[in-house]
Amino acid sequence: MTKSINAYEQDYAQLMKDCPTWPSDKAAEYCSAGLWEGLTFSDMLADRAARYSEKTAVISGENRLSYAALYDQAGRLAEGFLQLGVKPTDRVVVQMTNRYEFFTVIFALFRIGALPVFALPLHRLSEIRYLCEFSEAKAYVIPDTEAGFDYRGLAAQVKEQVPTLRHVLVAGEPGAFPFLSLEKLMKQAGKRHEEPYWPSYVESGHVAFLQLSGGSTGLPKLIPRTHDDYMYSLRRSNEICGITEQSVYMAALPVAHNFPLSSPGVLGTLYAGGTVVLAPRPSPDDAFPLVAKERVSITALVPPLALVWLEAAVQRRPDLSSLQVLQVGGAKFSAEAASRVQRVLGCRLQQVYGMAEGLVNYTRLDDANDIVVNTQGRPMSDWDEIRVVDEDDAQVAPGEVGELLTRGPYTIRGYYKAEAHNAKAFTADGYYRTGDLVKVSEQGYLVVDGRVKDQINRGGDKIAAEEVENHLLAHPAVFDASLVAMPDALLGERACAFIILREGLVATGADLKAYLRGRGLSAYKIPDRFEFTDAFPQTNVGKVSKKALRESLQAQMSAPTGASQ
Ligand SMILES: O=C(O)c1cccc(O)c1O
């Protein structure tokens, strides 16, 4: 350590300047109402390790980590990170598949006040390079390989292209790459010193990590969440979802995604002293045996996976007797599929409509079937403020469709380093513009009815149209590009790119797909279909009419003479 505590205070002051937070009167209100309890993630784990000690915290393949072991490993890794020169307020991009090191790493970073930046396992060079650059990350943490993909090769490219990135750390084997394994980092740090072995710089009001936005603009936005606000959302989610120390939560979705991370997810489960089971993949082949073996009581899926589970369960009749609750969220779940969950899987359905920016809505476990099947739930907290507005920000009549705006004790007031965007994405009085169209029932339940933001929700994977369009526009043969959603029975939506080629130049759909892959774009963002055209329909203010493009696509898809690929 080369700096005094005061120096870190300056670093925190800078960080907090980059991260808009709540006005002080609101913050005081949330504190005095006991919503923000003044607990950091590091203190939370220390407390649970003392309380639950040998109880199993995380199960991942052959590994079973007790609360004490998780705390101990996080402490040693924290020491290791400090020795590497990672210090309070530094950013560290964490791209981890569902393995236990996700927890040892993030709790190590929480401990020293460094900020994990949560990447997803499917992210590739384009996304990771951006995350590392934009957050000025000092380190990048990866698994060695997973599902046939070598993250070390990706990291080698990122390291070469991002000069501020000093360290790559690997869960598993570094192999021939010049990277340090987490295991070595932990050993290097030696045995844990007497506590506390470094002063605590971390306060509960500080930003704990940067979460990723689904986004609708060219580049993904980073979401600063504080210990206080996130912890409140976990505590309240636990109450609603019945999470206790008896709960066994299985993460089938990638654990860094906000839904399995916090609604109530793996962190809610650790908060309650329960057990987290990490499924390597969400397929019935992997997940059903785990549910039976570990007596999983609750898990979370996106709608396409829920459909796959429903189908497989009918055929295989697996032992899901321990499963009490299946949460479905991330995209709209059809009422038809929703109505089959209880009968086919033998557990209660909970619909979850949430966003990494904050607001999470749940159907309640004792809600009538009609509500559980037909709505996306209601806000988790009485402190959530919501408004449903028309294009002029005027409140719509009760029950009418409008854009959902929200603010509250766990909804951010602005993105990280995004002043210009924040002015558009938030109202002057601090409401976040969700970009989703909803209607609110008399009892306060939300039904999602579309969106105004330019995004495609591909089975829960959100694609910002502008991001993909920008990549397409970089192709020499592309004059203009417009990405729209097309309906899909399994995923809900897929992406179709409408392309106008430059005169005299040619490119096929296959060429453009290969081009996007070559630019390091993740697979889920690569358009599923390409349509070549001479001009785009326009709105009466002269913008590209995506509505007209979607309609022309619909007409073509229902026409008898198949698709042009
Ligand atoms: O981002 C989401 O889609 C989401 C869904 C359910 C719950 C959440 O917390 C989410 O962030």
TrEMBL record:
<keyword id="KW-0812">Transmembrane</keyword>
<dbReference type="GO" id="GO:0008668">
    <property type="term" value="F:2,3-dihydroxybenzoate--[aryl-carrier protein] ligase"/>
</dbReference>
<feature type="domain" description="AMP-binding enzyme C-terminal">
    <location>
        <begin position="467"/>
        <end position="543"/>
    </location>
</feature>
<dbReference type="InterPro" id="IPR025110">
    <property type="entry name" value="AMP-bd_C"/>
</dbReference>
<feature type="domain" description="AMP-dependent synthetase/ligase">
    <location>
        <begin position="46"/>
        <end position="416"/>
    </location>
</feature>
<dbReference type="InterPro" id="IPR011963">
    <property type="entry name" value="DHB_AMP_lig"/>
</dbReference>
<keyword id="KW-0472">Membrane</keyword>
<dbReference type="Pfam" id="PF13193">
    <property type="entry name" value="AMP-binding_C"/>
</dbReference>
<dbReference type="InterPro" id="IPR000873">
    <property type="entry name" value="AMP-dep_synth/lig_dom"/>
</dbReference>
<comment type="similarity">
    <text>Belongs to the ATP-dependent AMP-binding enzyme family.</text>
</comment>
<feature type="transmembrane region" description="Helical">
    <location>
        <begin position="100"/>
        <end position="122"/>
    </location>
</feature>
<dbReference type="Pfam" id="PF00501">
    <property type="entry name" value="AMP-binding"/>
</dbReference>
<dbReference type="InterPro" id="IPR050237">
    <property type="entry name" value="ATP-dep_AMP-bd_enzyme"/>
</dbReference>
<dbReference type="GO" id="GO:0019290">
    <property type="term" value="P:siderophore biosynthetic process"/>
</dbReference>
<protein>
    <submittedName>
        <fullName>2,3-dihydroxybenzoate-AMP ligase</fullName>
        <ecNumber>6.3.2.-</ecNumber>
    </submittedName>
</protein>
<keyword id="KW-0436">Ligase</keyword>
<keyword id="KW-1133">Transmembrane helix</keyword>
<dbReference type="InterPro" id="IPR020845">
    <property type="entry name" value="AMP-binding_CS"/>
</dbReference>
